[in-house]
Amino acid sequence: xxxxxxxxxxxRVEDSVVxxxxxxxxxxxxxxxxxxxxxxxxxxxxxxVSHSMGTIEAACNGILNNFWDDPFEWTLPEQLSxxxxxxxxxxxxxxxxxxxxxxxxxDSCLLKSVATPAHxxxxxxxxxxxxxxxxxxxxxxxxxxxxxxxGISPSGFII
Length: 159
Prior knowledge:
The chain has helices spanning 3-20, 45-65, 83-102, 124-150; strands at 113-116, 120-123. The protein is mainly alpha-helical. A hairpin with a 3-residue loop joins strand 1 and strand 2.
């Protein structure tokens, strides 16, 4: 796989999340149909979008700075209380991701290993593909929640 192809896939995820955000009514950003301590955890659109972008942010901060912590402190509903603030944060995550990708000098860089706290040594390609899949997973869930909330099916998604 080539760096540019992988970067394009990340851009698609980021762009589609930014495109979906204006469709989420502000009062429904963190709405959940129910909450239960004894059953399946239910996430809101806002939480799922934050998880999607947080996955990308954590991986790219790890690559750039060896800082692997989940960025949950600055993705809390109190910090990202409206769709516009979420979009602003998403654009910051996109810049971080672009900076990480700019650090790769050529496609062979993807074969280099990095030490991660959770999985030990992994190749960059493995780390980035897992990150992309996880981000897409959360993004897809957010779109399903949006459909349930409002009946809106954003273009480009089949649900």
